[in-house]
Amino acid sequence: MAITTSQAADQILTDSLPVRRRTFRFRPGSVLVYLVLTIAALLTIFPLAWMFVSSLKPGSEIATAPLSVDLHTLSFNNYTALFSAVPMWIGFQNTFIVLIIQGGATMFFCPLAGYAFAKFQFRGKKFLFAFVLSTMMLPAIAMIIPLLLEMGALNWVDSYQGLVAPGLVNAFAIFWTRQQIADVPNELLEAAKVDGCTPFGMYWRIVVPLMRPALAALAIMTFLGIYNDFVWPVIITSSDSMQTLQVMLSNLATQINNSSPGTTGHDAWGMIMAASTIATVPVLVLFIALQRQFISGMLAGSVKG
Questions:
Q1: Looking at residues 29-51, what average pLDDT do you find?
Q2: Which of 64, 111, 184, 293 has its CA 20 to 30 A from that of 156?
């Protein structure tokens, strides 16, 4: 293949440039930063590592020597005893039902509401958005009694409807997506509109692909909020069959003693550590799988071009 004049000129210019060699420079400040970050990482990981190791230790050893590790005593006996004493699958089942319904509704409806507030003009828009923001200023604890009375009037106490309904639409999710969608150039939407694209088509084909990192971050925050929710599930549920995972973990010691009379507190602690380890796994897996999208979504919009 023949080389053009411009390519030859570029090659000569490249060859004439001096070669810069990378030199390592010792910077005490960088060493200090990495040292502090390493210590912070170890302090963060230590409780998780201790919880996992403790779940493999006999309960008596957790109480007498919590920081020691004897490899000869490590086993999965706490896990087998836990599953035989407590129906953990019920807590996981109820939690994931709430996650699928409530989380799915949040991820579908809230970005649509944010899209409407960001890109459409309609009567009462500012008032409605201000009303949505005002709901974020109310403490969650102040809404418990009115919500409980409402669920009682609808006969939804101790049911999936009562667990799911109050959190179907999240004001923060609407605000978050509205701020992200506002950065989408209007020219793209106008061009799609000229080509005959419907409003929902513009949202699905243009807006959603551009805000995937923000949606991933919202998905993780929604998952954590629902998965770790304790106050509302413990109030709205009364039967063991409707308990979510967090409620079941809070009553774990009582359930262990009821199912296995004579179980000592030491043995219960071993099973509690095993249950806590199992409950932590889904959160770790989700964050590890989506950590890049989560960080990108949290930083989206922080730098303006």
A1: 88
A2: 111
